[in-house]
Amino acid sequence: MEHLRNRCVGPDRGQQRRGRGAVGKQRELIVRKGATMRANRMRLRRSVLVLGVVALIGGASVAGCAPQQPGSSGEKNAAAAEAVSVSWSPTVDCMVCHVDQASSMDDATCLAGAHVSEGLTCSSCHGDDAGLASVHEGVTTDDKTPKRLKTTKVTNDGCLSCHEKGDLLSRAADYIGCTDEDGLTVNPHDLPDTPGHVDVRCVDCHRAHERSDPLGAAPELCLGCHHYDKYECYTCHE
């Protein structure tokens, strides 16, 4: 009978307390999980917001880098920013701007290449420091690089500082290219000392930065003044 009474009465108070404790823990676990889920949702919302801001900034950047219409302020500002002023000195690397001339210095068939192989540099021939400094004033990298010298010159004295006059005379002693129609032959390295020959320079025939034929250039240079193919003075005009 006692056994039946215990079964009808049900669990004792200790079991009830243990049951309520388990339920409490379960509820606490559910509350914690809910809080975690809410925190995760907040993080997700913040991430979406940050990505949206980044996308907005990126779109503005792309729009700012988009091609501008010709003549627009963006294009002008970019061009102005890219232009760099040129500061010339005797030790500057000329080949940074003078690209065509630089290529000839690697060409052994050009006089420039032959001179470089002997250890010469740009300033060895282009010694007009004052003239070169003046012509480079206000120049920027956007300016067009001239093909030929206009303000400064490579002088005969510069050439003769290395090439002896006597050696040049003997080299051209047998050259007959400069012969006029009367049979008068002139050594192009020994021109008569007349006012018309004062401005004749070595580089008129001997071009340093291009492949040239000085043997063919010499008679052409003479005919530039001696139009009637007569070298002797006072024989062309009555």
UniProtKB/TrEMBL annotation:
<keyword id="KW-0408">Iron</keyword>
<dbReference type="InterPro" id="IPR036280">
    <property type="entry name" value="Multihaem_cyt_sf"/>
</dbReference>
<keyword id="KW-1133">Transmembrane helix</keyword>
<feature type="domain" description="Tetrahaem cytochrome">
    <location>
        <begin position="114"/>
        <end position="227"/>
    </location>
</feature>
<keyword id="KW-0479">Metal-binding</keyword>
<keyword id="KW-0813">Transport</keyword>
<protein>
    <recommendedName>
        <fullName>Tetrahaem cytochrome domain-containing protein</fullName>
    </recommendedName>
</protein>
<dbReference type="GO" id="GO:0046872">
    <property type="term" value="F:metal ion binding"/>
</dbReference>
<keyword id="KW-0472">Membrane</keyword>
<dbReference type="GO" id="GO:0030313">
    <property type="term" value="C:cell envelope"/>
</dbReference>
<keyword id="KW-0349">Heme</keyword>
<keyword id="KW-0812">Transmembrane</keyword>
<feature type="region of interest" description="Disordered">
    <location>
        <begin position="1"/>
        <end position="22"/>
    </location>
</feature>
<feature type="transmembrane region" description="Helical">
    <location>
        <begin position="47"/>
        <end position="64"/>
    </location>
</feature>
<dbReference type="InterPro" id="IPR012286">
    <property type="entry name" value="Tetrahaem_cytochrome"/>
</dbReference>
<keyword id="KW-0249">Electron transport</keyword>
<dbReference type="Pfam" id="PF14537">
    <property type="entry name" value="Cytochrom_c3_2"/>
</dbReference>
